[in-house]
Amino acid sequence: MRLHTLGSICLLATLALGHKAISPGLAKRNADLSGRCASGVAQFNKRRYERRSTASLEPRSANSTFQIVTEAPYYDVLQNDTCVLVPDVTAGPYYWPRSETLRQDMTEDQPGVPLILDVGVIDMATCEPLPNALVAFWHCNATGSYASFTGRDPNTPFVQLLEQLNITDFEIGKTDLHTDDTTFLRGMWPTNDEGILEMKTVFPGFYVERTIHIHTQVFTDWVLHTNGTVKTGETNSIGQLYFNEDVSGQLMALEPYVGHTEINRTTNDVDTIYSQGFENGYNPVIDIVPLDGKDVRNGVIGYITMGIDTENIAPLSSGGM
Ligand SMILES: *[C@@H]1O[C@H](CO)[C@@H](O)[C@H](O)[C@H]1NC(C)=O
Ligand SMILES: *[C@@H]1O[C@H](CO)[C@@H](O)[C@H](O)[C@H]1NC(C)=O
Ligand SMILES: *[C@@H]1O[C@H](CO)[C@@H](O)[C@H](O)[C@H]1NC(C)=O
Ligand SMILES: *[C@@H]1O[C@H](CO)[C@@H](O)[C@H](O)[C@H]1NC(C)=O
Ligand SMILES: *[C@@H]1O[C@H](CO)[C@@H](O)[C@H](O)[C@H]1NC(C)=O
Ligand SMILES: *[C@@H]1O[C@H](CO)[C@@H](O)[C@H](O)[C@H]1NC(C)=O
């Protein structure tokens, strides 16, 4: 048993990093693109910032008793580095496109702090906003469970879970671990003419061995059929988005997150997939602004700009969580 456990740890490292370590060539390409588009991203973010602060927005709170302070600037200093080149980051074992519904509110009945994602997509080939890109999101609920996998214990290390299931040939996108057809906290929506979309959800909780994150996948090649089904092309960009520890710490102290005591939360500094983002020259941390202009515990807006390398789109990655 002891030996088994040691073996498991090694396998986990392989799963998490393994053959998916990004090549030095690709890392350099990403860093170069990121640098080249810094000015384009800065301008894009400035327009979004101005749009928010000129109050052309309808009341947008989950809880209508909160008023949005639209006059106040959301950023003290304009951010120009929130550029994610969604490259070869793992899709994770809870990748399940079948449960991703086309909608702008993927909360369903899940409790938690309201989170409105304001997402900009940039075409790294031109450094211009990318309209009509379909962006999918999926993340765990306040106590670590993923929709469609609610029968899986979020507190059991993944390698142990596979052992329990006698699975030795796990492959993301191939091995079927789903337990049901629930769809909470999974959704997708296209960017508008300005390359922006909004998705409403709740702040994620955490599960074993991972820091708090949201998975995202961007399709530039997709069609909406008249019967409501979405068909996506083979190519896509994939990534994971994170939060700074200060915000996470404040929110995890609230119900219902604080009730998740079976495991200790893994933080950004020790999460291996998190550090890959920075090594690869992009910043996958969502900028958080309080929804009521005052207190993040009342709800938050999260800004992120994702850069898509449209000239070098990778196939779906595997491994890791
Ligand atoms: C981005 O921000 C950094 C730090 O504030 C600044 O040095 C740099 O010039 C900015 N780049 C652009 C393109 O605005
Ligand atoms: C909205 O916020 C008020 C004030 O904090 C609180 O009393 C109320 O329960 C909240 N309603 C919902 C639906 O969260
Ligand atoms: C998260 O989902 C699981 C599985 O459906 C459920 O048992 C749990 O109560 C949910 N967490 C919260 C805080 O509602
Ligand atoms: C896994 O294999 C063990 C030993 O052969 C068996 O006892 C157990 O029921 C199997 N578990 C599953 C989920 O198939
Ligand atoms: C929806 O329409 C597409 C294109 O006609 C078809 O391929 C697909 O099977 C349909 N899906 C359902 C659920 O009817
Ligand atoms: C969490 O960490 C603390 C301090 O290291 C430790 O005492 C405690 O047993 C841990 N709890 C769990 C559930 O692992």
Description of the structure:
This protein has about 325 residues and is an alpha+beta fold. The chain is built from six helices and 13 strands. Strands 1, 3, 4, 7, 12 and 13 form a six-stranded mixed β-sheet that branches. A hairpin with a 4-residue loop joins β3 (about 115-125) and β4. It is globular and about 50 Å long. About 40% of the residues are buried. The model is unreliable at about 1-20, about 55-80 and about 315-320 (pLDDT under 50). The structure holds 2-acetamido-2-deoxy-beta-D-glucopyranose (6 copies). One 2-acetamido-2-deoxy-beta-D-glucopyranose binds near residues 141, 142 and 143.
Question: What labels describe this entry?
Answer:
Intradiol ring-cleavage dioxygenases domain-containing protein, 321 residues, Intradiol_dOase_C, globular, signal, alpha+beta, disordered N terminus, Intradiol_dOase_core, six-stranded mixed beta sheet, binds 2-acetamido-2-deoxy-beta-D-glucopyranose, five-stranded mixed beta sheet
Provide a short characterization of the protein structure:
Helices cover 21% and strands 21% of the residues. By secondary structure, it is of the alpha+beta class.
